[in-house]
Specification:
The complex is a heterodimer of chains A (981) and B (143). Chain A has 981 residues and is of the alpha+beta class. In chain A, 28% of the residues lie in helices and 31% in strands. Chain A contains 20 helices and 51 strands. In chain B, strand 1 (2-8) and strand 2 form a beta hairpin. Classes of the chains: A alpha+beta (981), B alpha+beta (143). At the A-B interface, helix 10, helix 12 and helix 14 of A face strand 2, helix 1 and strand 3 of B.
């Protein structure tokens, strides 16, 4: 049948070939079953062992053909099903014990061949296959289509083969080896698949003779011994491991690594074995698989002995001893050695044994390897062992150190309670000889000595006299029970005090150094966190257990120096405000003092400027500026001397303070200038050393809020001369209240009244007030004269008081935007002790631009300053035409109860260019007192504008009768003199 | 026959693992259960690759070894249940109903107020109940 199949294959009739191969395989299978049923007794041609070998070889050949054809056709599922059937048919066909290794070898080869076939035809595997894994429709799972799966199994069976072979060789008393002693020579494969034959030379004739089973077994054994299976096993596992890693199956990959490591271990390549076991165990540690970790650690332990590393051995042994055992299977089964490796079955008794083994090692005994009696390790004084345990180390289970200060901060030099808690998960109590506590401030380090060991320890620490030594009655750590030790710690150095580590010494030459942990932020122990243990706290005080820290803040010593800042009143914008600062040592002397001054916006916002504005050109952006720091009452020379360090920026200044004894006093003036009204925090901090030696610096801080205020508010008004009213056309045209522009008539004198009001809380003295022209030219387009006002000689301005200056303004050009300059007010504080040279502060305020225009008509009213009841007086209304045009006007005068008058009520007239038109009325007052003249209205027809003289301009006081003023002659002269002024 | 049952927690840590083979193959079973977690991860993280809807807790056959089959089940709280059988031909419905009983036993065990979630299950009653479920398990016995 197989011949037909081969022929079909030759004809590329794949389906036919497959059918016949399957048929041939089935026939072979039937024969195998028959053979098996008759216990190979009715062997026809060949002895039983060789018969089995032949059947396997033929089956392999046929299966290879079938699976190649199936995979070639993309029928992966069928191929895998076929493989499983093939494997299940033959897996129990082990044969005799002596040749079982042949069976495992064959099985391994099946997997290897299939894996390679799968790999070469992986392109043919459809992607849709993976979509229904795990469902009832598919009997396949993810890994079954991966060659890695078969590689790994091939390696497994090869390993099985190696075990069998080793067993066989080690016992060495098999029946076959006794019966036949000699390995037959010249054995070669026969012409038929799966058969072997011996070549016997008889003269020139070469004869092929069949072998007996005993001969064949000897031959197979000798052949098998020639191969280094281990290398192949490692190669297969490595291949599988790499594929599984790529497939993101870390656990399967680590299983392969584990097997690979075991093979390395078997071949006595301990370095590679250790490396692999280390990576594998990190995964088991991470996921908490104790039993798996135990096995790996057992190998690692053994590797460390063989590599002569006592430190590693101790680490692995301690970790194993402190592992929680997963199941309580205490019964030792003879085969467990093979299963669990050198570690044996994980059990409580094993843990205890491991602990005592390590303890005896560190106390000086030798440990001998379990696999090789010639190999041993020891811990000696010359080669002490130190193990470091950090917060991620698995050895936290062995020794966990939690430290807590009872307070959060402490004054320098005063003691603070410090609790040190230790716990161990080792199965038996462990006694520590010495504990060394290390801080970040080495002066605080101390040693706790077991009282029993005290004498010997004191002797050994003879060279370390300056370290504080405490004794404890006994330092014994029972299993999972906190050992709590409380001591006082004192630090003289301000800053952070942190406990870094605690080193426990056991025996003369073994130390275990644990990183200290804060109880508040302590992680759970690996592995033990899954155990249902009673929760225990590192400190008796549960609050401390939840919030305790290994760090404490040692505060600065209290400053004994007074720093006095004074500001009597708010600062005024524009002046150089002086803040006196005084340093008075009370208990400390001041050495290398440094004074820092900082100005900060009191309403938040940090600096008084943005950092981008630091360039010197934009200093105008500073609203408040620190101008200088100067020593009070010093001459210039000493100032230069004392200001060794003096850096001043707009809002920050540093100045050095000379050394001061108790009783000395040092003061300086801070000069600060406000450009804008702003509330400012002034921070002064003095840093100094209390003694001349380099010691911790002490800082004194003071702050003062200073308001910056506007001292004077300046307002102004423009007025027309008394009883004179020019017609300003644009003013008439503009809507009332629409704009705040000031209109002035060209070549007419206007009055400017400037009012300065003291808006601060301190009395001020005005030294002068003037109007400064902005233009540099000598000829200004207007003339301004100071005509009067309140006396300008240092007039006192009480808070809320006003100062008025009167100026006459006469514009000379017609301009819609005439700059009049600015008001300059020179003032200073009204201080009784003011310095004579104080030049005062100039406050400047710009006057708004005015609109100047030619007025076509100017109306002026003329009448006497007062009238007498019943006595007539003349009232002139003069309209002067300033233009070169003829102007027609209409005018009217209304009636009032207070006056009778003669003249027209309404009239009109023409005014010639540059001429004046006078209307005269005679009025007789009828009432006394302040009276309003009849309302006059003058209308210009050309401009359609009416002029109404203002109420104040048309008010007159009427006396009931001729007033009699009696004035002494000399006084009259005085008055006249004054009036003439 | 069921060789082993296991409960695995969130961090892929074993919470309960019991072997029923009588032989000392605990380590082997630990390895098998541990490796099966890869398949669970694969199926849970790539739901679109498998038709298993996330609503269903039963994950199906995870991992065939030469002589065992591993089935998985994922609870809503992401606790994994695994069973290793030696029967190579088991009906899906049998396994499903087995997992339902197993899950119920687990829920009862962790409902114990003295049980801290995330810790190993040490309840004897749970162990007895699980071995009862395992003993009662025989293909075809459940509807």
């Amino acid at each position: 049948m197989s011949l037909v199949a081969v022929f079909a294959e030759f004809r590329r009739d794949w389906a036919e070939a497959l059918r016949f191969y399957e048929e041939a395989y089935r026939a072979l299978r039937e024969e195998t079953v028959v053979n098996k049923g008759l216990m190979i007794a009715t062997s026809t041609r060949l002895p039983p062992v060789q018969r089995l070998v032949e059947i396997r070889a033929v089956a392999e050949q046929l299966f290879f053909k079938i699976s190649t054809l199936l995979l070639h056709g993309g029928k992966v599922e069928e191929a895998i099903a076929w493989f499983n059937r093939h494997f299940n048919s033959y897996k129990h066909l082990v044969g005799l014990d002596e040749v079982s290794f042949l069976h495992w070898d064959w099985l391994s080869r099946q997997f290897l061949v299939f894996a390679e076939l799968l790999e070469t035809s992986s392109a043919a595997i459809p992607n849709t296959l993976s979509s229904h894994f795990g469902t009832p429709e598919s009997s396949l799972t993810e890994w079954e289509i991966q060659p890695a799966y078969y590689y790994q199994l091939a390696a497994n069976y090869l390993r099985e083969k190696r075990y069998c072979l080793d067993n066989l060789l080690s016992t060495g008393d098999s029946e076959f080896s006794r019966t036949s002693g000699k390995v037959p020579e010249s054995v070669m494969p026969s012409v038929f698949i799966g058969q072997s034959a011996r070549l016997v030379e008889q003269g020139d004739m070469i004869e092929v003779l069949p072998l007996s089973d005993a001969e064949y077994v000897q031959y197979a054994l000798s052949e098998a011994q020639r191969f280094q299976d281990s290398y192949e096993i490692i190669a297969l596992f490595r291949k599988a491991c790499e594929s599984f890693t790529n497939l993101k199956a870390p656990r399967l990959a680590s299983l392969c690594s584990n097997r690979m490591a075991k093979e390395y271990f078997f071949t006595e390549d301990f370095t590679d074995a250790k490396k692999l076991f280390d990576t594998v165990s990190s995964l088991y540690r991470q996921e908490g698989w104790v039993t798996l970790l135990w096995e790996s650690l057992g190998y690692l332990q053994e590797c460390s002995i063989r590599l002569d590393s006592a430190k590693d051995f101790i680490e692995y042994s301690l970790e194993m001893a402190s592992l929680p055992i997963f199941a309580n299977g205490d019964q030792e089964i003879p085969d467990s050695k093979r299963e669990y490796g050198p570690a044996g079955l994980p059990s409580q008794s094993r843990r205890e044994a491991l602990q005592s083994e390590v303890l005896s090692l560190v106390r000086g005994e030798e440990i001998v390897s379990r696999t090789d009696r010639g190999c041993s390790i020891a811990v000696t004084k010359e080669q002490p062992v130190r193990i470091d345990v950090d917060i991620i180390s698995p050895l936290r289970m062995v020794l966990l150190v939690s430290v807590a200060f009872h307070d959060q901060s402490v004054k320098p030099g005063s003691p603070v309670m410090f609790t040190l808690s230790l716990v161990s998960q080792l199965p038996c109590s462990i006694e520590v000889d010495e504990l060394e506590i290390e801080f970040n401030q080495p002066k605080c380090n101390f040693i706790i000595i077991n009282a029993v060991e005290e004498i010997s320890a004191a002797r050994s620490n003879g060279d370390n006299q300056d370290v504080r030594i405490e004794t404890a009655p006994s330092i014994v750590l029972p299993t999972n029970k906190w050992l709590r030790l409380t001591y006082d710690v004192k630090s003289d150095q301000s800053g952070k005090l942190e406990c870094l580590s605690v080193t426990a010494r056991i025996g003369k030459s073994f130390k275990i150094c644990c990183q200290a942990e804060s109880p508040a932020s302590m992680e759970d122990l690996p592995f033990w966190k899954f155990e249902g243990m009673v929760q225990t706290f590192p400190t008796k005080d549960p609050v401390l257990s939840f919030s305790g820290q290994k760090v404490i803040q040692v505060e600065e010593p209290d400053p004994e120096v007074d720093l006095i800042l004074n500001a009597s009143s708010p600062a005024l914008v524009g002046e150089s405000f002086v803040v006196p600062l005084t340093v008075i040592p009370r208990g400390h002397e001041v050495y290398s003092g440094e004074l820092k001054i900082n100005l900060v916006d009191a309403r938040g916002g940090g600096l008084l400027m943005s950092p981008r504005e630091t360039d010197p050109f934009s200093s105008g952006n500073h609203h408040v500026e620190l101008i200088s720091i100067s020593r009070m009452g010093d001459d210039d020379e000493s100032r230069i001397h004392s200001d060794k360090i003096k850096k001043i920026q707009q809002s920050f200044g540093v100045v050095s303070v000379p050394d001061l004894r108790v009783g000395d006093k040092w003061s300086c003036k801070l000069e600060i200038k406000w450009h804008k009204p702003k509330s400012v925090m002034l921070y002064a901090s003095l840093g100094y050393s209390p003694n001349s030696a380099e010691a911790a610096r002490v800082n004194v801080h003071r702050s003062l809020q200073i308001e910056g205020k506007i001292p004077i508010s300046i307002t102004h008004t423009f007025m027309m001369p008394f009883r004179r009213e020019p017609l300003l056309l644009s003013k008439v045209k503009s809507l009332p209240g629409a704009d705040q522009n000031v209109y002035l008539a060209l070549n007419e004198t206007s009055i400017l009244i400037v009012t300065a009001r003291n808006s601060s809380e301190v009395p001020l003295r005005v030294k002068s007030m003037m109007i400064q022209s902005n233009s540099n030219k000598n000829e200004t387009p207007y003339s301004i004269q100071h005509v009067g006002g309140v006396s300008a000689d240092d007039s006192l301005l009480v808070p809320g008081g006003e100062f008025k200056g009167v100026f006459s303004v006469r514009p000379k050009i017609d301009s819609p935007n005439l700059e009049l300059g600015s008001v300059c007010l020179n003032w200073n504080r009204d201080l009784t002790l003011s310095d004579s040279e104080d030049s005062g502060v100039v406050t400047e305020q710009k006057l708004p631009a005015v609109i100047v225009e030619q007025s076509p008509l100017v109306v002026s009213l003329e009448f006497p300053p007062h009238a007498i009841l019943g006595i007539p007086f003349l009232f002139y209304i003069k309209v002067s035409n300033q233009t070169n045009l003829l102007q027609e006007i209409k005018y009217s005068l209304g009636d009032t109860q207070s006056f009778v008058f003669c003249g027209p009520h309404d009239n009109a007239g023409f005014i010639l260019p540059k001429m004046e038109y006078v209307m005269s009325y005679k009025l007789v007052p009828l009432c006394s007192g302040s009276q309003q003249l009849p309302q006059a209205t003058i209308t210009s027809l050309r401009y359609s504008a009416a002029l109404n003289p203002s109420v104040t301009a048309t008010t007159i006081f009427v006396y009931p009768s001729e007033p009699n003023f009696f004035v002494a002659d000399n006084e009259k002269e005085t008055i006249l003199a004054k009036l003439n002024l | 026959m069921i060789a082993c049952v296991a409960v695995v927690g969130h961090q892929n840590n074993p919470l309960y693992l019991q072997s029923f083979t009588g032989a000392d193959d605990a380590l082997k079973l630990h390895h098998i259960v541990h490796c099966s977690l890869d398949v669970i991860d694969e199926r849970v993280n790539n739901p679109k690759r498998s038709v298993i809807t996330l609503n269903e807790s039963y994950l199906g056959l995870l991992y065939p070894t030469e002589s065992y089959k591993v089935y998985g089940y994922l609870s809503n709280t992401k606790v994994k249940f695994l069973v290793v059988t030696t029967d190579l031909d088991v009906k899906d419905t049998d396994i499903r109903s087995f997992f339902r009983r197993f899950h119920a036993a687990y829920v009862d065990a962790v409902s114990n107020p003295f049980h801290v979630p995330g810790k190993k299950i040490i309840s004897r009653i749970f162990a007895v109940r699980v071995s009862g479920i395992v003993k009662a398990f025989a293909p075809g016995t459940y509807g």
